[in-house]
Design goal:
The complex is a heterodimer.
Chain A (H helix, E strand, L loop, with lengths): L3 H9 L15 H8 L4 H27 L16 H5 L7 H13 L7 H19 L7 H18 L16 H27 L4 H15 L3 H15 L8 H27 L2 H9 L4 H16 L1 H14 L11 H9 L9 H32 L3
Chain B lengths: L9 E10 L2 E11 L4 E5 L6 H8 L7 E6 L2 E2 L4 H10 E4 L11 H11 L5 H14 L15 H13 L5 E5 L7 H16 L3 E5 L3 H7 L2 E6 L2 E6 L1 H6 L4 H12 L2
Classes of the chains: A mainly alpha, B alpha/beta.
Amino acid sequence: MNNPAAATVTQLTPAPTRERPPASVYGPMAWMRANLFSGVFSSIVTIVLGFLIVYAVYGLFQWAVVNAVWSVPTTAAGALDPTSCRLVHGVGACWAAIGDKWRFMLFGRYPYEQQWREALCLLLFIGLFWVSSDSRFWNKWLGAIWAVTLVVIFTLMWGGVFGLAYVAQDEWGGLPITLILATFGLALAFPLAVLVALGRRSTKLPAVKMLCVVYVELIRGVPLIALLFMANVMFPLFMPVGINPDKLLRAQVAIILFAAAYLAEVVRGGLQALPKGQAEAADALGLTYWQKTIKITLPQALRLVIPPLVNTFIGFFKDTSLVLTIGILDFLTSSKTAMADPTWQGVSTEIYIVVALVYVAFCYTMSSYSRGVERKLDRVRNR
Amino acid sequence: MSQTMEAPAIALEKVNKWYGTMHVLRDVTMNVAQKERVVVCGPSGSGKSTMIRCINRLETHQEGRIIVDGTELTDDLRALDTIRREVGMVFQSFNLFPHLTILENCTLAPISVRKMPKAEAEELAMDFLRKVKIPEQAKKFPGQLSGGQQQRVAIARALCMKPKIMLFDEPTSALDPEMIKEVLDTMVSLAESGMTMVCVTHEMGFARMVADRVVFMDRGEIVESGTPTRMFEDPQTDRLKLFLSQILRGH
């Protein structure tokens, strides 16, 4: 009757599996209870913050949409009449100003009837980024695609051939300048950074190591603005008389050198984090230094530092706006210059918002792309 | 020894090494004949791993001579390349390349170092993966395999270079007990194929089964060496007696 074996059998019967957990632990209601209304205090915080958010969004909506002026009438003289904009100043946005000034914001002082060339450059840049981000194009052709695209971009910008009017570099401006500085800055700084990072970790070449340490510490210890000034003012003094590389190129070199110093430290961090056994296994198999570096250590190290790498990339994308200090009109500066138009006196918030949205669009694209790459690499192998 | 007429596969002559002021190898002299299987044992910190790592110059020695397969280890990089091509190594922590598949791990060195065509390298790799009994894992990544499987891949990877000498640095120390046997089985069959082997291990059963000679190291020097039976049943020195009593107590 009281058979212990029978009791054990009853205990071992598996519990019935249920299709889904009860609503109190899973689903939107449960989530809200757990995260928003878990107690009196958290409920109060939720309600107060919710009110503030609704209030802010409502205010923004009133300003940006309901009270906004989207266009202004043209006077008999053919000029725009900004009176309606001035009337709503403070309560409504004046988007008409953007409609009038967007070309100056995007293209700066580039000759008005030639601005299609800069527009084409923008499209080419975006196409180039798009192609480079797709792993299907990661083959020997990618380098060629870059070279060709960049030659086309510079031909378009400069002109002087194929019937395109010559446009001096001082007249370039706007978003293409930002993209030129950021793209070249990072594309050239990155390989340089890898070499510096490898040099700094070298044990067999003390002179190279010393050189890399001095380079990184020296460049990192100086503000970018100072470096840009130096590139602009001092560099020509060292050049032979009559040779004066243009201002954009000097700023570009300064940005490359500066970015490389920062990126080098990021890459070095990745190399340092790799277990020593990886390099030893490669050595034991007889791989040469470069085979070991290119096939074993670098791919793993770079994968480890994707987040700080993208962090630095995003930082430098925005730092290109510092070229305003040496009088180059990048996107931010040409937008600021657009504000100086007396017709649109007082319109600045609107322009800053548009500029911010453009920067956010680029930076967010970079960061979400990098997250995608990380997820993909995680899927390929679980460590 | 019967094979003294033949040049030794590995010869260490009065090798000394220091880490800073710590003397880690003291006058280590040892010859390993062709096809000989040597097991090196000793307490931790006795310098046995350092010694085996000196043989393919993962560590550099400061005094004495090390001659591997007729080539002396010096700062000459070409000599080093020659030696590393002929000497395979298996590590305690496997050190597989986590970003490459099992097959790629095995074909990398034959393709890059031996300049073997890819198809041939893959065929060779699959051969060795079959020998270590995991051909079905070829497309996976190291992280998806168990420790024992990873170590067997590491052995296959080293064998793909067709080395004349294999070095094992505590190959089973990082494994769970149930996986030790599968790795030891692989090593036994390798030993039976006539490979010259130097193996740092605490697996005394393995030593008895395959070793021609057991070398006991303590505090950076070779204290005693001889056949496994002689060493385990009739230890001459107190240090070996102490060591044997310690590891036997653990089993």
